[in-house]
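WARN retry 2 of 3 for item q-0093 after timeout on previous attempt; input resubmitted unchanged.
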Amino acid sequence: MMRDETQMYQLLTGIAREDDRIFAVYMNGSRTNKNAPKDIFQDYDIVYVVGETSSFIEDKNWIHKFGTILYMQYPDESPDYPNDRKCHYGWLMQFDDGVRIDLTVQTIEYAREHIYDDKLCTILLDKNNVLPEISEATDVDYCVQKPTQMQFYACTNEFWWCSNNLAKGLWRKEIPYVQDMTNFVVRKQLEKMLSWKVGIKTNFQVSVGKSAKYLYRWLDPKEYQSYLDTYFGGCVEEAWEAVMHMCDLFACTSKYVADKLDYTYNVAEGEAARRYLEQVRQLPPDASSIF
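OK item q-0093 returned
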C-alpha cells in the first residue's frame, strides 16, 4: 500500500533526527503549494541541510532507509551537466509502493544562501536553528505576469516568424523537425498568449503551471479543447490542419489580449504569415518556386 503524507513526513524527519550529520529539513515543490491539485503522483521534494556532502555521496546504501527503490537516478553523476558536489548533491528515487522522493543534500552555507530562491518552501525540521526564518509558502512568483507592449510584440513576432519553419518542414515532410519546432518554439508563444488571457481574466493572480498545464482551469472548455486540437501526430495532413488551427487560435487570442491591455497587434503580419503557410501547403512536391 502507498504510504500517505503523514507516514512520509514522519519518515523523512525521523531519518534526519537520528542522523547527527543532518541539521535541518525543508521541502519545496507542489506539496507546499496550496493551489496545486493533490494526487498520488506528487513527489516529495526534500532538502537535507548537512555539514558536509561527501559522506552521503560515498555511502550509497543509506538511501535505502527511505524504502525499497524500484529505480532511480543520480542527476549529479551526469557528464552533461555541471555540478558542485561539495555544496549539493541529489538522488531521484521511485519506490515500489508508488512514492517518489527527489532528495538533495545541501551544506548549511549553501542552504542559507539559496533557501529564498523559491517561495514555495516549508521548513519541516531545524534541529540546530541553522536556517533563517522564511515566509509561508506561496506560489506568487509563479503567477502569470502582465506583459509589456514590447513583450507582447516579441511573442507575436516570434510566433508568426517561426511559422515559416513549420511551412518548409511540412512541405519537406520532415515531421520530427516540425514537431520540435512546433512544441519547443511556436507552441511556447501560444502558451504565453493564452496565459496572458488567463491573467487578464484573473487580474494576474493565478499560475497556469509548468507547460501551461492548468489552462483548463481558466479557459472556457470549448476554448481549451481548441488548444488541445493544436496537437498532432505523425501524419503530415493532420499536422497541417493543427498548424492552421493554431494560427487561428493565436490570432484570436492576440487580438483579445491587445484589446484588453490597450496594446497594438500587428494584424497584417499575422495575415501575411498565414497566407504564406496556405501558399506552401498548396505547393506540389516538385515545386521549383514558392510563389
